[in-house]
Amino acid sequence: MNFEFFAFLVFMSFVSFAVAFLAYGMVVRFMGKDGFLARMGQIILVPACIVIYDFITMAAPQSYRYIIGSIPLVLIAGIAIYFRFVKGENFADAKEQSPSEMAKLADEPKKFSKKSARIHEKRKNRGRE
Length: 129
What we know:
Layout: H1 3-31, H2 36-59, H3 65-86, H4 99-106, H5 114-128
Helix pairs in contact: 1-2, 1-3, 2-3
């Protein structure tokens, strides 16, 4: 195998990942995370964007392939720089939270109706007697 071909395949894997990251971010931004439209966007639009952008990159003249392919990589670097310096995010000091800790933070106490609260209280008191 030719080394240049292998290097291009490795480069295209990074490009595909970058396009997937950007496409998923746009789907979540404009369609949300939940719902039918968001799910269909994640299932259909993200892979379609990857395939279409890979085709555009491969169909470009050989002298422009790396330039066209590097556009998503530059966009991700720009997003990271924006969040680091403009928004003030510090990626290195972020404490990693487990999924169960994140679920506890998002967990709201259950809200009961007055009737349900009375029944719950009676059952609780009945067990104590």
